[in-house]
Amino acid sequence: MFIYLSQPSDLGTDMSSSTVSGANLWGPPSAGLQGRSKPLPLSSSIRRRRWGGSCWDGGRKILCASTVRLRNWGDGPPALDTCNSSISKNLGVRKDVGGESDVLIECKDVHKAFGDKQILRGVSFKIRHGEAVGIIGPSGTGKSTVLKVMAGLLAPDKGEVFIRGRKRHGLVSDEEISGLRIGLVLFFFKKVFQSAALFDSLTVRENVGFQLYENSKMSQDQIAELVAENLAAVGLKGVEDRLPSELSGGMKKRVALARSIIFDNTKEVVEPEVLLYDEPTAGLDPIASTVVEDLIRSMHMKGEDAHGKPGKITSYVVVTHQHSTIKRAVDRLLFLYEGRIVWEGMTHEFTTTTNPIVRQFASGSLDGPIKY
Ligand SMILES: Nc1ncnc2c1ncn2[C@@H]1O[C@H](COP(=O)(O)OP(=O)(O)OP(=O)(O)O)[C@@H](O)[C@H]1O
Predict the structure, then answer these.
(1) pTM of this prediction?
(2) Ligand 1 test: best mutation among 72, 116, 144, 148, most atoms within 8 Å of CB?
(3) Where in this chain does the record put each ABC transporter domain (predicted)?
């Protein structure tokens, strides 16, 4: 499995101080930047400050939450120990029970606590090939936590995560599981309004091609071409040399989307890809939201990009609070409340269900089982 983050932080970070420019660098300079025919158009000092996508263990490269600051929350364990490669081992193979071969990701009875705060209390669901799934529910109920567990960036305390039927043990490494690429696309730092969270001192080209510069054997020219192609797919042309500060909020999100769909097309085997979007339209005006929602749809295998080509994303999961995103970008919904999935249904059932929790949430009423 190949995990990448389309935004470098927001994983167990100190929320109040999460900025890209405050990034940590783990491990030695990237192998992906060595031995290239042309040097990256980045000074090494910038690279030292900005490029932190990998950690090293016994010579193995593990792509991880690139710029996450490890920290403890209260008395709990480290919020993330993505560099602890020893826990990415011992994959068990699960039998394909009951014709479940189209299940890409399954969470089974997942529990997760932070310190003494129990967040997930037995979350179970499946994401199938070709699906567009939304996770909704009240604030703080653990939606982003579920995404991080699915992405392999947080390990459940109890319960299991299966990736194409294979049980994941611990956290993810890019070498020990194959067959599914999972991308976690984060758009915001919690509590700090900073759209798309691009690397602020890198150009759009460098931001979008980040993973390929780091992890592929592609030449600079090949990457530049692919970056231009992926930017065009999200309706952006000629912005490659701009810095994020020179883009509008909506353009930044599109750049983040282009970064999430770019992949090494020189590889012989192209794995299915699941994208996990965390609040892609938060903070956008209604029209900009529509643009992003349609882009998410267009990048899906059932959609088509700006050039009429079918999208590359096999399945995706969106965490959102926005009604428009639920309606426009999602087919099936999971409702998370008090640490469990309390309702599942198709999007059109969201407003017609008799489930009192969902009804209250959908109507925004203060009366009902959800207490604030
Ligand atoms: N790394 C962490 N360490 C400690 N507590 C955490 C950590 N990550 C999340 N939490 C806490 O877990 C709870 C669930 O957080 P999470 O971000 O998953 O909720 P959410 O449903 O996505 O919320 P929102 O809708 O407000 O974005 C919150 O109380 C949050 O403060």
Answers:
(1) 0.71
(2) 144
(3) 105-363
- Rounded distance, CA 348 to CA 356, Å? 16
253 dihedral zone (left: phi>0; alpha: psi -120 to 50; beta): alpha
| Ligand 1 atom nearest residue 147's Cα | 18
Percent of the chain with pLDDT over 90: 35
Give the range with max mean pLDDT: 75-89, 160-174, 326-340. 326-340
Render pLDDT for 222-248 as a digit per residue (tens, 0 to 9). 999 999 988 987 788 899 999 988 988
- Which DSSP string do the residues of 111-169 spell out, in sequence order? EEEETTEEEEEEEEEEEETT-EEEEE-STTSSHHHHHHHHHTSS--SEEEEEETTEEE-
- Decide: helix, strand or coil at residue 278: strand
Cβ–Cβ < 8 Å for 186, 10? yes
- At the topology level, CATH places domain 2-89+131-154+170-363 in Rossmann fold (3.40.50)
Domain spans, the chain: 2-89+131-154+170-363
Structure tokens at 336: 């998370």
The tokens for 342 are 């309390």
Can you tell me whether residue 276 is helix, strand or coil? Answer: strand
Ligand 1 centroid–CA 326 distance in Å is 21
Closest residue CA from atom 31 of ligand 1: 140
112 CB near ligand 1 (under 6 Å): no
Q: Map tokens 């929790």 to a residue.
A: 357
